[in-house]
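Researcher: Sequence recovery benchmark, item below. Answer with residues only.
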């Protein structure tokens, strides 16, 4: 198998040239420091993977009130800036590029960590056991619907985190609009039952995502903001309801003018979904003409084929990049990959 397509450089414009098409997918590692800065080992962890075309960090909280998992880092304190700068410096010293993935969990926050009731577009609870912490069983909690005037304040949290990411020396940010978290909760009919300007119509449901992306582009300028979406995937007890398609299609149309760096699929497995009639990446490709990152259980041959055929421009790897810090070199040499095992991650889910 030729892996040439994966090793063709890609010029994203605006001063960002990726030497290859392999991305580190954002992967939460549950190792943040006590004040929710990056872990002591984060600089070495990311630097070890700096030969990727682009690294995307683990999801990074825009507020302490959004914490829904053990030891996940943030960019909501000024003290987080120098800590992340050490990570960025280590990656840059190895010649790499790194985006911070900005994250609000919405209804998937938990008072066990956040010390507050989760907030969400609407008070919709899917009451299932999510995880354990120190032997304690935690269930999803009933979220509080954000008041109309609170929603812009949450957009401001993303803007502030985007600014801190700039100060820290990142190369850009990725808006986490995937996997059932707050941005996606606004997009989907299942979790957005609002009747104000932040819900109801297609326009209302996409407004929060669009405002967050605009805020980040406002801070970063063109070519430095990515957007992750998971059309049809059910992570976080999410549903796909008839009509959701329209919201995604219109959102992808509306972000066209914002000079995004890329749109990024976020799915566990990029397979055909009945409700889309295609894979999540195919859905995005159909409605998004810009740079597209495929993701979801890609093996090297499929990744090569996807880039070579134009099905996507880049491919991100999560589990195989956790298991193989030298993934890029293994791909280049055609060497077998170490298989990912859940014990490799300190996640308690
Ligand atoms: C341990 C672990 C942590 C993850 N954390 C995140 C995250 O913080 N943000 C995110 O968007 N996706 C996260 N994901 C999803 C991955 O980015 C990716 O979409 C998924 O693992 C499928 O890609 P893969 O088959 O290459 O692993 C995580 C996945 C794993 C396995």
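Model:
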């Amino acid at each position: 198998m030729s892996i040439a397509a994966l090793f063709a450089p890609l010029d994203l414009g605006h001063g960002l040239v990726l030497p290859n098409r392999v991305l580190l997918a954002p992967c939460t590692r549950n190792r943040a420091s006590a004040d929710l800065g990056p872990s002591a080992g984060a600089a070495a962890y990311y630097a070890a993977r700096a030969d990727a075309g682009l690294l995307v960090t683990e999801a990074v909280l825009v507020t302490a009130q959004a914490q829904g998992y053990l030891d996940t880092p943030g960019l909501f304190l000024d003290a987080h800036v120098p800590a992340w700068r050490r990570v960025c410096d280590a990656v840059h010293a190895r010649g790499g590029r790194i985006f911070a993935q900005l994250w609000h969990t919405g209804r998937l926050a938990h008072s066990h960590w956040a010390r507050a009731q989760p907030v969400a577009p609407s008070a919709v609870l899917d009451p299932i056991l999510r995880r354990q912490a120190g032997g304690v069983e935690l269930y999803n909690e009933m979220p509080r619907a954000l008041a109309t005037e609170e929603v812009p304040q949450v957009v401001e949290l993303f803007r502030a985190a985007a600014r801190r990411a700039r100060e820290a020396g990142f190369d850009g940010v990725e808006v986490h609009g995937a996997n059932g978290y707050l941005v996606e909760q606004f997009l989907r009919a299942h979790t957005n039952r609002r009747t104000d300007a932040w819900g109801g119509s297609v326009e209302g449901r996409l407004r929060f995502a669009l405002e967050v992306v605009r805020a980040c582009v406002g801070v970063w300028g063109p070519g430095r903001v990515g957007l992750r979406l998971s059309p049809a995937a059910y992570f976080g007890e999410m549903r796909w309801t008839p009509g959701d398609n329209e919201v995604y299609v219109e959102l992808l149309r509306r972000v066209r003018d914002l000079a995004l760096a890329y749109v990024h699929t976020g799915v566990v497995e990029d397979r055909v979904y009945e409700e889309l009639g295609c894979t999540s990446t195919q859905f995005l490709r159909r409605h998004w003409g810009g740079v597209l990152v495929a993701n979801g259980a890609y093996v090297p041959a499929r990744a090569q084929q996807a880039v070579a055929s134009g099905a996507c421009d880049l491919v991100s790897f999560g589990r195989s990049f956790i298991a193989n810090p030298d993934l890029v070199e293994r791909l280049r040499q055609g060497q077998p990959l170490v298989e990912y095992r859940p014990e490799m991650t300190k996640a308690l889910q």
